[in-house]
Amino acid sequence: MGIVHLRRPGHLSALDFRLGAAPPPVGEHPSPKLATHSAFEAEDGSVSTGTWEASPGTFARAIVDAEFSHFISGHATFVTAAGDTFDFRGGDAAYFPPNTKGVWTIHETLRKTYCIWR
Fold first, then answer.
1. Distance, CA of 75 to CA of 93 (rounded, Å)
2. Which CATH architecture has domain 29-117?
3. What pTM value is reported for the model?
4. Tens-digit pLDDT profile for residues 1-44
């Protein structure tokens, strides 16, 4: 694997994204629309990277692998299963250890780049 260059992820248009399945609702909250622009996926599925976007709504975190994210724009809150609350805005970055579970609330359309290790 060589260098993976995510070119101007903040400037991708809606047409550049692949819409994913809607996550199951959490309580009475609306589910967001989730979309991904993949930049790289290892043949064995061990590593993937790209740009991800979610519209406002609430959902349980589905990825339980290790993940590093850089938030480009938007605003969201993540509450871990243990009750810890993290507020993310454009410009922030975070590492999610394997098996991090919790609930996302997207307040303003959120866009991030990600790298996931399986």
1. 12
2. Sandwich (2.60)
3. 0.94
4. 789 999 999 999 999 999 999 898 899 999 999 999 999 999 99
